[in-house]
Design brief:
Number of domains: 2
Number of strands: 17
Strand order of the largest sheet: 6-12-11-8-9
Order of helices and strands: HEEEEEEEEEEEEEEEEEH
Low-confidence stretches: 1-16, 21-30, 218-228
Distance between the termini: 64 Å
CATH architecture of the largest domain: Sandwich
Oligomer: single chain
Mean pLDDT: 82
Number of helices: 2
CATH topology of the largest domain: Immunoglobulin-like
Radius of gyration: 21 Å
Bound molecules: copper (II) ion
Strand content: 35-45%
Length: 229
């Protein structure tokens, strides 16, 4: 009796102890995909959090792949959260105001110029982002409020956590260009940092270095101009 024990050939099939089901798995097995971990570091080798990592298929076909159609940028405690929100083109972002006072959210960025005029606590406004690029957010009432929405075309993207690591799951076989973006990096927009192949379902780990400005989050009016958005 043949029982398929290979992790390679039974990936995604939970009925590996049944030979008939195992054979069936050979025919209905979905295409494999790999998880790609990208570590983003500064020029001084410090891990960079809140960096957006993208994998763009060589040839530019970004039409396939699933990604969320909705995302949330909260206003709470007189701050935006998260500080950086990566989304795919076409995503609608909700802007719930969870404070007891009003906010007036706006952006002058070319990728999305918009204004959500004064709205109070408990209210939510929505904006759909159709153009790739960095969108710097501010509030007309509270100058300290600052956040970024980074709109990407590819379905393969993730944001680094505090240890500088981002995991992009379910990357199908192919050749990809890696890019990393951070609002405080020296050159804007993001610079592609090279290509690599996903040739097996073995997970891949890559290290990307980006040159950062001084470690600061601009809190003054006019800071957007300095950022070049
Ligand atoms: Cu505000």
């Amino acid at each position: 009796m043949m029982v398929l024990e290979s992790a390679d050939s039974t990936r995604g099939c939970k009925l590996r102890r049944l030979p008939v089901a195992a054979l069936l798995c050979l025919f209905i097995q979905p295409a494999w995909a790999a998880d790609v971990t990208v570590i983003v570091m500064s020029q001084s080798r410090a891990p960079i959090s809140d960096a957006v990592v993208t994998l763009s298929p060589t040839g530019g076909d970004v039409s396939s792949g699933e990604s969320p159609k909705h995302a949330v940028m909260v206003q709470e405690h007189q701050q935006f959260a998260p500080f950086v929100l990566p989304i795919r083109v076409g995503t609608t972002v909700e802007f719930p105001n969870r404070d007891s006072f009003r906010h007036h959210v706006y952006s002058f960025s070319p990728a999305k110029t918009f204004e959500l005029k004064l709205y109070g606590g408990g209210e939510t406004q929505t904006v759909t982002f159709d153009v790739p690029g960095a969108v710097a957010l501010g509030c007309n009432i509270h100058d300290n409020m600052l956040a970024y929405i980074y709109v990407v075309e590819t379905p393969y993207f993730a944001k680094t956590s505090s240890n500088g690591r981002a995991v992009i799951q379910g990357v199908p076989p192919g050749n990809y260009e890696i890019a990393a973006w951070h609002p405080n990096q020296k050159s804007q927009p993001s610079n592609p940092t090279g290509n690599f192949d996903v040739v097996s379902e073995n997970n891949v780990e890559k290290i990307v270095s980006i040159e950062m400005k001084r470690d600061r989050r601009p809190r003054q009016p006019g800071a957007f101009d300095e950022q070049g958005y």
